[in-house]
Amino acid sequence: MRREVQRGLWFEEFETGVVYEHRPGRTITEADNVLFTTLTMNTQALHLDAAFAEGTAFGQRLVNSMFTLSTLVGLSVAQLTQGTIVANLGFSEIAFPKPLFHGDTLYAETVVTEKRESKSRPGEGIVTFVHTGRNQHGDVVATATRKTLVHLRPTP
Questions:
Q1: Where does residue 21 rank: exposed (0-12), middle (13-18), buried (19+ CB within 10 A)?
Q2: Which CATH class name applies to 11-151?
Q3: How far apart are CA 145 and CA 152, in angstroms?
Q4: What order of strands is seen across the sheet that includes strand 124-134?
Q5: In the chain, how long is the greatest CA-to-CA distance?
Q6: CA 12 to CA 116: how far, in whole Å?
Q7: How far is Cα 67 from Cα 75, in angstroms, rounded to an integer?
């Protein structure tokens, strides 16, 4: 009987210009936001103080943008990099065009914009991802470009 273990894609399997849609989405709870915010020592009242946040332009607490970014990338792992990534090389062009609130659902998609074999690390390649996070209404709430080092397909 043949067995397949869930994994991400090998370097050769990534295609530039393809939109990889990651499902399911993740509904963000108040507990998620407060736990992440306190674990990371972020005392920003916009995340923790409901009375303060009521008086802002948003009228309620915001989901911590670093939690949004982490979840956006996390939603891509099973489909793209589970067990095939060597390392994250860096993030750039991170933006949060609209806020995410408690009870919103974050959906993620990724486009591969560039890939090349590593010149200094045989058996590995560099893949550039552009991640986009949308809420349940389709509004873009986060974008980020990420460079990764990924294994080439092992030779048998």
A1: exposed
A2: alpha beta
A3: 21
A4: 19-27, 105-117, 124-134, 140-151, 85-95
A5: 62
A6: 10
A7: 12
Given a cut of 90, is residue 8 above it in pLDDT? yes
Q: Is 53 helix (H, G, I), strand (E, B) or coil?
A: helix
Q: Global pTM?
A: 0.93
Helix (H, G, I), strand (E, B) or coil at 105: strand
64-75 residue pLDDT tens: 999 999 999 999
What is the three-class DSSP state of 81? coil
Pairing of strands 105-117, 124-134: antiparallel
CA 41 – CA 67 distance, rounded (Å): 13
CB-facing half-sphere around the CA of 50: CA atoms within 13 A: 4
What are the residue boundaries of the structural domains of the chain, listed by start?
A: 11-151
Q: Which of 156, 89, 102, 97 is nearest to 129 (CA)?
A: 89
Helix/strand/coil percentages in the chain, nearest 5: 25, 35, 40
Q: What is the DSSP letter of 138?
A: S
Question: Cα Rg for the chain, rounded, in angstroms?
Answer: 18
What phi, psi does 135 have (nearest 5°)?
A: -85, 180
